[in-house]
Description:
The chain is of the alpha/beta class. The protein has one domain: Zn peptidases (Aminopeptidase, 3-Layer(aba) Sandwich), CATH 3.40.630. 39% of the residues lie in helices and 16% in strands. The protein has eight helices and eleven strands. Strands 1, 2, 3, 4, 7, 8, 9, 10 and 11 form a nine-stranded mixed β-sheet that branches. Strands 5-6 form a two-stranded antiparallel sheet.
Amino acid sequence: xxxxxxxxxxxxxxxxxxxxxxxxxxxxxxxxxxxxxxxxxxxxxxxxxxxxxxxxxxxxxxxxxxxxxxxxxxxxxxxxxxxxxxxxxxxxxxxxxxxxxxxxxxxxxxxxxxxxxxxxxxxxxxxxxxxxxxxxxxxxxxxxxxxxxxxxxxxxxxxxxxxxxxxxxxxxxxxxxxxxxxxxxxxxxxxxxxxxxxxxxxxxxxxxxxxxxxxxxxxxxxxxxxxxxxxxxxxxxxxxxxxxxxxxxxxxxxxxxxxxxxxxxxxxxxxxxxxxxxxxxxxxxxxxxxxxxxxxxxxxxxxxxxxxxxx
Length: 311
């Protein structure tokens, strides 16, 4: 009886510890959403003081978590046609197998938004909480949760600037990596994950569902169907409308976006009312948690198991 009681106590302590850790994660997600979608960031439009503040906020997080910059600095500056600077923010976890260094896993999201718009009820700042502070926070949280994973392949975490200007940050990085003879193994892009799909808790859809065998392996590793098909993704051609697309075009590799926005579950797309208070941190934490193990296993592939199918 004493042994049984001790075992029960241990189980309860483990459950309590996990519950506390999850609650701390949710609180941090909420805090990060509020920071990135605050009025101080002025809608994070490319080329403004607001996006520069956001880049420093993200860089500060990576530094605090001891996640290394991929280049000399976390900030990788490029320039728009009007000569205004733009800032990709890039960190990474080193791979343990040197022969895989040129074939990393990339996890990204754009952190820019559309800035100041016509006022509605006195509010002119398009804060971009769902689009795409939510995806940005997802990348930051995955970096934190994967940093001790010791993957065989490097995992590069990228927050792209100038997505709203035409996928410019991701296009710039894809071209830069190609010039450095870096060919990503897979690219995972997070786009608008702040609210759940109707009737589909714990799931996200993936763009380009049939273009590779990515979903087959990811769901197997998650031991549940965490990634699903979306007819809205196909209808609106979303595979071509986010930062996965330049990598697919440049490298012809599995490059997909994860999203829970399907045009029916959130009415404030590119709207000044896209506010942090409308996000669901508990939902986001559930998604992020379910993605950690599959990503870790994919980063431990020693060959190119995930391939294009071109359907």
